[in-house]
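Supplementary notes (optional reading)

For those who missed the lab, this is the record we used. Protein: Glutaredoxin-like protein. Length: 117 residues.
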Amino acid sequence: MIPTFALRRYVCRLTLFTRANCGLCDNAKQVLSNVWDRRPFEYDEIDVMAPSQQKWKDLYEFDTPVVHVDKVEENMTTEVSTTAKARKLMHRFKEDEVQKLMDDALMHSPSSSSSSS
């Protein structure tokens, strides 16, 4: 689910925070898959219960699923690149809500707002 490098500056990165045996997380994955069919994005998935994810466990242990939406910047690394301040949806969300958040991330990114100053 990763677009070519040429498309990177026009897409979003969605990071899904999930955990095993989570029915809401399974539904969220299906919603994101349906969005992907219409609109490509970069995708990362983080199991908040993994030992290496203590930061995210502390934040989302009782709130999964959570999806972060970030605009992919040209200087972003291929590593997970999101923060707790990212645009987000929690628990139950629909395809149109994800797409609206993607639009918002692209329209109101730091790079686009600084160019209008």
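If you only remember one thing from this example: The chain has a mean pLDDT of 80.
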